[in-house]
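Lab channel / #folding
Pinned by the channel admin:
"Please post every new chain as: sequence first, then the structure tokens as a reply. Keep commentary short and put observations after the output so the thread stays searchable."

First post following the new format, from NK:
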Amino acid sequence: MSITNTTIIKQPTTIYETSAQGSTKKTQSSDTQTINSFKDSLSESVVKEYKRKHPDRAAHVDKQVRAGKAVKERNGVADLSTEDMTMEEYQAYFYALLDTIPYDFTRVNDTTIITISDKGWEQMRKDPDYEAWILGYFVEDRSVRNPFFGWGNDAGSMITEHFGASIEEHHGEGISKAALKGNSDKDDDEEDWWIKRHKRMKKLMKEQVDRAIKRDSAQKAAAREEYTRQQYLSSARQHSFLTSDGKTVPTAPNPEGISAAMAAAAYINTLDIFGSGVTGNVN
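Reply from TO:
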């Protein structure tokens, strides 16, 4: 997966809200059941359902879906499966994709707050067309020019975008920042708070993905160590049997193998203890 972030000297502010579900961890014992339910849970895309209910808007929706799929193609993740991702990993992946969608240069002063419900995240993760529609929505939205840009006193807009588990649940509002300047100092402090919160949240989301990768590596290392230890014990028992006239001599376990496996297990437990609920507190 290669998602490239474009660095711009000055650009609009986009604030991503994670759901409480983002801190949910997928346990190894339920992996098979989760993957099967993931594959079987989608009976029909909500995009197809929406087009059937609103045939007059079908062409526009198809255009947005195509634009969203083009975003994934440009970033080399068109065929990436999300079924094995934890929710926190999927959220970080999706927001990284959104960060690659540029704004029109006249929107440089805008601040956008994006929220997605828990059910919305689940629908996006299992419904590629709905995920593509949301990406395509922002491709279209961010390309819109601000007609008041350059007038000298344009402060941009404060915009909120909310998405649920269907296209019908989407709603967005926008208001000029100038209209919110009843108390300029208070408004500036509030905007600074949102920006700082956004930066903290992006840092925590990156830490969650890194922690998930390290946890997976530790589990694989422990499994390899245990396999090697079992192979060694089996070989030792066979050797003892062949050299002791059929009488098996008990073989002591490899202390280094046991200590390595215990160390890996302790590391995994530490990640789970200190990593729980990270996205729940970004204030």
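NK: The chain has two domains: 13-187, 212-280.
TO: also worth noting, The longest helix spans residues 184-243.
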